[in-house]
Amino acid sequence: MVATRPGFGDLLLRARVEAELTQEELAARAKVAARTISDLERGKAKIPHADTVLRLIGALELAGPNRAMFEAAARGRTRSAVSALAGQSAEPIPETVSHVYRLTTGFAALCNRRMGIITGDIRRIRHIDIWVNSENTDMKMSRFEEYSISAIIRYDGARRDPVGHVIEDTVADELTRTVSGRCPVAAGTAIRTGPGQLAESHNVRAVIHVAAVYGELGAGYRQIRDVGRCVTNALIEVDRMPDHDRDVTVLLPMFGTGQGGGNRERTAGVLVGAAADYLAETPITQISTVWFLAHTYDELAAFQDQLVDNPRFTAG
Predict the structure, then answer these.
(1) Fewer Cβ neighbours under 10 Å: the N or C end of the chain?
(2) What is the pTM of this model?
């Protein structure tokens, strides 16, 4: 699903989910077409009619700050509205929605290269070729029991028996063999492995593991200083892969903002800037689209603040 003006659609989606309504149920309450709800949430309809907005406010029983943000987004003030939402919530986004932007400068504009945001749980994504994994400088993947992208990639990439027990730790074992005797690696290092079972379950061609955090004794993990290097090195590693056509898509997470404690707004700016620079300044690349994964509303807002109303990008 592609959004051209994402803010209002995001707020509508969240409000509908919190009200525990399907699109059809909300449409019936608001006395509008279900297609209208779908188009607004996907961003296919840019700015809703004033009457539609009032009907939706009534059907969703919005009041106070929530109503104010909803009305602001409906008037096209998407950036400020979604940023305000981020200040209230770090909740996971329940649905997968894509927001696509074309680059307007350099080789990216000439070759129609794009960047985008995709929301929700990474386990629902099945159309992006290369997944990038935020890892530590020791290149030790998270335990299966942890809730992180590293743990998800490790478990879903492993070979399992019919009841889900891991019988071959495919991705983690390959990563360990690849870096054997070379750890810790330098900050920003990118190491490619196969996708294991993710190839069959999620159509992933490869996983790029990037050293985005480092550990300190007694202090836990910290985001590396130059997190933009993670993006550049990951994309370089993608372009080193053989036997690809000229239409490879890449998924990047919010590096180092979980256990690494990095600031989301600053990190989003660095990641978007590094990816845009690579696509704009690289004459020949296999990469057609770089996607940023926004698992939570505040991650979505951080990425949108870098892409919406930015002259380097145009929606669509």
Answers:
(1) C
(2) 0.76
Q: What is the pLDDT along the chain (316 residues), one digit of tens a residue?
A: 333 334 788 888 888 888 888 899 999 999 999 989 988 888 777 678 888 888 999 999 887 657 767 877 776 655 544 555 545 456 788 778 888 999 999 999 999 999 999 999 999 999 999 999 999 999 999 999 998 999 999 999 999 999 999 999 999 999 999 999 999 999 999 999 999 999 999 999 999 999 999 987 776 789 999 999 999 999 999 999 986 666 899 999 999 888 778 888 899 999 999 999 999 999 999 999 999 999 987 888 889 888 877 899 987 7
- Which domains, ranges and CATH numbers included, belong to the chain? 2-88 (1.10.260.40), 98-315 (3.40.220.10)
